[in-house]
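Note to self: the last two entries modelled the partners one at a time, which told us nothing about the interface. This time every component goes in together.
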Amino acid sequence: MKLELGNFYVKDIVFGDRISYSKGVLTINKEEALEVVKEDEHITEADLFIVKPGDNVRLVPVKEAIEPRTRVEGGPVFPGVTGELMQAGNGRTLALKDCSVLVVGKHWGGFQDGLIDMSGEGAKYTYFSQLKNIVLVADTDEEFEKKEQQKKNRALRWAGMRLAEYIASCVKDLEPEEIETFELEPITKRSDNIKDLPSVVLVLQPQSQMEELGYNDLIYGWDSNRMLPTFMHPNEVLDGAIISGSFMPCSSKWSTYDFQNFPMIRRLYKEHGKTLNFLGIIMSNLNVALDQKERAALFVAQMAKSLGADSAIVAEEGYGNPDADFIACLVALEDAGVKTVGLTNECTGRDGKSQPLVTLDPKADAIVSCGDVSQLIELPPMETVLGELESLGRDGFAGGWAGDEILGPSVREDGSIIMENNSMFCGDQVVGWSTKTVKEF
Amino acid sequence: MANLIPVAKTVGSNKIVPTISIPYPLGDPNTSKEEQWKLRYHRVGVALEALTTDVKEQTVFKVKI
Amino acid sequence: MKKAILYINQFFGQIGGEEKADFPPEIREGLVGPAMELQKQLGENVKVTHTIICGDNYMGSNTEEAIKTILGFLEDKEFDIFFAGPAFRAGRYGSACGHIGKAVKEKFNVPVISSMNEENPGVNMFRQHIYIFKGGASAAAMRKDIKKMAIFGNKILNGEELLSADEEGYYGRGIRRQVWLTPSVNAADRVIDMLLKKVHGEPFQTELPIPEQDIVPIAEPIKDLSKAKIAIVTSGGIVPVDNPDRIQSASATRWGKYDVSNIDRLESGIFKTIHAGFDPAAANADPNVIVPLDVMKAYEKEGKIGKVHDYFYSTVGTGTTQGEAARMGKEIVKDLQEAGVDGVILTST
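The predicted structure of the combined assembly is written out below.
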């Protein structure tokens, strides 16, 4: 499988008459773009904004981030989701780099939604403050979930994907500024010098804990709650086979942008053939019953063993009871003789003194920690808020509250806020970006 | 009574009776009301017996349904 | 000018050795023994105003009395920081520094800094409560140990950024917090580094050390269930639909108890779950799947159990800190004991 990512480095984004890309400048016709958004009749209101690093702007409730991409040979960027099924991970896909489409609710947020500050102290808590962003702020007629804490955000998330595909289509006939090639030889056909290196599998546990359809990460459009661990090529993940879901406290979530750019996968590619033999990805999931968690761990360990993996990396998209899936998987792999490193975040509580993961095992002796969801963050007001600031306190955000005896409300009258890291948009960057760790004090 | 036995063990529970899942520990909504009742009646019964049992270490009690 | 006070034992207070270990607490203005070195190391911006001296045995055998006296001494003193020791490997001295340090911290809420050798039992007794720096085995390390205490004290008083326990050199207090690495290294790089070391059998350092397991004493079994009163307690967030106690959906700090003396089961629409950590559909349709009141009442009718307690107890167990959970647990237990409850079925989600 050979994937070529053709990159265009976006230096500026402006609104203009015609959608186009030239010399680093992306021009978007706002009206035309909004028509694409409104192709779904459930979108009742929509507007577009451009925000850049350093802007005095706060975005909340942020629901999704997507890198604008298009396929040179045609076909949907997200097979099985935005179009028919096709193999992802082969051929040439064009990407607009250093920018993303951010989807923000005009009014309503929820447990799974997050916050982004484009400048100031808050900017360091999310990856997306370093990108130029096309921000879709919209509302829908999905009345059934307007006041629900858990939202599927279906119309908004799909509008974001449509918009990202539409925007990237303007580079379809252009020659990319850079081409990155991702190619792994079939496992049994590799040369001896690669086979002699320690082999490694990457085990991913994307969010799949809602039994009702519509909330979980989708793999080729298939709800990840309805699957057992399976073997995938890393190119599939990098090329749109997975989209983010709409469940889990936001700092633990992996956005679609995160899947498209997965730094851990890219890093493994870099080591492949030098220090490691990268076998591929065991795509597992996260479950809500012990037998499901144990079954998934059995499948993962067996596959790693059968593939001849000397080592494994396990990453979980979540915390709390997903820690049980995570630790079960680490233990099963170690028991199978596979040397394993875990990649996760922690929840140590507001006092920092709680057990960092809900399940622990001495066999999980190598863990990289990307952050602490319960850390309190206090931020000054921002000049502009896109979305609705009130949602942070009102709508049951994982890291926001209407009132607290000691801390007061999350959203104060002057527009300043206090929140838990929990609601920083994809803030813990367990996909590999995180430059945070957790230390004892 | 817990589904995540490893969590219950990690936090130091001494008498543990397994339940069937996180969102519905004692009654699977995909089964009939009668079946749910039977399962709940059985497992709570095991838990009540566990309260009368002398244990020396962390113990997971066996359930039949 | 900031002010500091130092606690030392009878030996370093120049009262005497083992024969004077029963020396009761005394406070002196100015500098005694190690206080001079502490003053020197703290520099001009901090003044060590008083030295407190107490015999190690006196503190050991009259702990409450000694603490009370010393807190009394401090009542009318102005001070911004409190030091104790260094205690090196001296067990009784270390424990005394810990006892008084913890009490001062709790009463006056000022930073408390001590120093002990890793083999001093005072380390594990008090490391959660005060800053205890890693110190030498004997008084030969006096200057070095005091220097560490003074440098850190100045850092706190100057409002400088405090680094992690390992970087600063004190024993970790069990508080884990996120920090940005400097120089910045992303998680993917750290994973590869750790993995390669692990694969090649080289030493590596996990970022999340597994703490020791919490062991709870085992309760006596109930002798006669048919005479016992049993209560249901849950962390599954089942409450009356209007959530009268405003229990939080995550990171809960509140619990509630709800009267079920006159009902045989929890009806949907009257009770629901407010727990945000799982799909609530099943529990909202039938709350008995989390709080099994229906079968408990059946067992009561059959005579298997004496009585189902009139109330069930509920809170939410997602993102809830262990500290809060333990506090709520203790409060609930007190209520249960007052009501003469013999046993509890605790359901979790």
